[in-house]
Amino acid sequence: MFSIYGMSGPVFRGSLEELKQVRQLHSLRAVRPIATEGEESGVAVIASPPRAEAIHAYQEMLHHDQERGPLYLAEQVMQRQVITVAASDDVAQAWRTLHDHHIHQAPVLDDAARLIGVVSERNLLTALNIDADRIIASLSRQVRDVMTTPVVATAPLTDIRLIATVMLDQDVDGVPIVDDNGRLVGFVSRSDILRAVVADPPLSLWR
């Protein structure tokens, strides 16, 4: 189950399939190229096979006795000690928070400690001039002015493959984990998922 949290609080709760239909998130998708390589010169481009067909072909090549291990859930891989920033923090303060804790992004909370967005180094660099990790110029902006919102969040028992799908679809580097009351309880980043993939026993990708 996934949720969307914005400035006014939770605005959606539903499945991954329903999430893909939510218009508020369309602006978070990666920009598509103007043309596929080869189109501008009149060269025919061979279309890649549909994703479902490719997966099916891969599965047919595997032996059924090659089950690779248990599924992983968000609660098994998430960071439980979550570093957060406040929407009212200035961008320089937020940058120092990320830098001091060696992280690249952080959930954003409002004055009532409710999740309302995520801010990344990429967001902050729109208002900061950084040289060798040192702030040399800063616009008068708060985190709320540059953060990504609305933000997709999910529950602790969500399969991390679904979380990875959201990261790819929405072009985000992490997903906040919230409990049934909407309280922030963890955070799953791309690095967390990569660590799960290489762990022993390894992640079962095709189960």
Overall description:
- The protein has one domain: CBS-domain (Roll).
- The chain has helices spanning 16-19, 51-61, 74-77, 91-100, 121-124, 143-146, 160-170, 190-197; strands at residues 2-6, 9-14, 85-86, 105-109, 115-120, 128-131, 134-138, 151-154, 174-178, 184-189.
- By secondary structure, the protein is of the alpha+beta class.
- It contains eight helices and ten strands.
- It starts with a strand and ends in a 10-residue tail after the last helix.
- Helix content is 27%, strand content 23%.
- Residues 27-49 and 62-68 have low confidence and may be disordered.
Keywords:
207 residues; alpha+beta; CBS-domain; three-stranded antiparallel beta sheet; three-stranded mixed beta sheet; 8 helices; 27% helix; globular
Beginning-to-end CA distance, first to last residue = 19 Å
Q: Indicate the CATH class.
A: Alpha Beta
Q: SSE order, as H and E?
A: EEHHHEHEEHEEHEHEEH
For this structure, the CATH topology is CBS-domain
Count of distinct strands: 10
Number of helical regions: 8
Q: Helicity level, as a percent range? A: 25-40%
At the fourth CATH level, what is the homologous superfamily?
Answer: CBS-domain
Rg on CA atoms, Å = 20 Å
User: Quick check: average pLDDT?
Assistant: 79
Q: Can you tell me the residue ranges where pLDDT is under 50 for at least 5 consecutive residues?
A: 27-49, 62-68
Largest sheet: 3 strands, antiparallel
